[in-house]
């Protein structure tokens, strides 16, 4: 995820000489300094005003103990770690100027992502907004407590949408389309529908009603989707499970180091 953000920032004009990546397994990028560990970065004289955590939440303990002494007064400490709250970050990095929790999604790679943001401390809000602007839309959350649900909703969201597209394509295959036709047509249908939704400003229900001719084909399909609210119940279960896993990850991260 952090690599997708970096690729977008570089494509949007960020000077690679201003970036250092600390990751034992990162893909090298032209002009970007790469260090296998924080010790290597420190030995190379590394300093930073902005530090972003991009490893798994389960690795917070091993990283925080080495990083906290380097994240002092002037440093904005950014985190994309699912589940890890602002309070957790403040506890791990108490001397940082600000703790900023960002939950992006994979579409940032093409500047079409959604990043939810919550912050603590003396954060430079304009600078945070400017940093995130090339990634797509940004939503500021006043309450960090909403972040786990939003992480499931927009962070995990693309994966859920990809599954829906796969299911649509698989159904098309079952009913006679070739695999290639089914996937191409499914992707074009989802892409076109979401673009129309964004462009028209209309509600999805109103657009669905425009597609469904009275007494025609679409309505019989919609009637199946709408039966007993089963689709909403399914999506609620999906999002609840993902949200609750975020809380578990936070507990795991909290129990470390
Ligand atoms: N994948 C996604 O769509 C999203 C991911 N996130 C968050 O982004 C974070 C990373 O997730 P992914 O990119 O999916 O995982 P990933 O496994 O692709 O990337 C994690 C990276 O951390 C590196 N790493 C491991 N230990 C390290 C250490 N001690 N020091 C420095 N780097 C270390 C790994 O080499 C790897 O490159 C997670 O905290 C996740 O919650 C947040 C929103 C969306
Ligand atoms: O699956 C995960 O835990 C992360 C958080 C949101 C998307 N990927």
From TrEMBL:
Residues 146-249 form the Pyrroline-5-carboxylate reductase dimerisation domain. The keyword Iron does not apply. The lineage of its organism: Bacteria, Pseudomonadati, Pseudomonadota, Alphaproteobacteria, Sphingomonadales. It comes from Sphingopyxis panaciterrulae. Catalyzes the reduction of 1-pyrroline-5-carboxylate (PCA) to L-proline. Its main location: cytoplasm. The gene is proC. Belongs to the pyrroline-5-carboxylate reductase family. GO terms for cellular component: cytoplasm. Gene3D superfamilies: NAD(P)-binding Rossmann-like Domain, ProC C-terminal domain-like. This is Pyrroline-5-carboxylate reductase. GO terms for biological process: L-proline biosynthetic process. It is an enzyme of class 1 (oxidoreductase). It is found in: Cytoplasm.
């Amino acid at each position: 995820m952090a690599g997708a953000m970096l690729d977008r920032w570089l494509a949007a004009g960020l000077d690679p000489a201003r970036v250092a990546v600390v990751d034992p397994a990162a893909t090298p990028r032209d002009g970007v300094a790469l260090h296998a560990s924080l010790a290597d970065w420190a030995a190379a004289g590394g300093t930073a005003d902005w530090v972003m955590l991009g490893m798994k939440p389960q690795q917070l303990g091993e990283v925080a103990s080495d990083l906290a002494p380097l994240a002092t007064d002037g440093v904005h400490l950014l985190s994309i770690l699912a589940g890890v709250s602002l309070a957790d970050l403040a506890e791990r990095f108490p001397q940082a100027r600000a703790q900023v929790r960002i939950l992006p999604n994979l579409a940032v790679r093409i500047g079409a992502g959604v990043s939810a943001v919550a912050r603590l401390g003396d954060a430079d809000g304009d600078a945070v907004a400017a940093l995130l602007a090339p990634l797509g839309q940004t939503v500021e959350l006043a309450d960090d407590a909403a972040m786990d649900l939003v992480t499931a909703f927009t962070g995990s969201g693309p994966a859920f949408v990809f599954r829906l597209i796969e299911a649509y394509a698989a159904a098309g295959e079952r009913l006679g389309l070739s695999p290639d036709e089914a996937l191409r047509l499914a992707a074009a249908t989802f892409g076109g529908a979401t673009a129309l939704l964004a462009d028209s400003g209309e509600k999805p229900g109103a657009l669905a009603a425009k597609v469904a001719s009275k007494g025609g084909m679409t309505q019989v399909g919609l009637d199946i989707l709408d039966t007993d609210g089963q689709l909403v119940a399914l999506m609620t279960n999906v999002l609840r499970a993902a949200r609750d896993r975020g809380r578990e990850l936070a507990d795991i991260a909290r129990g470390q180091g």
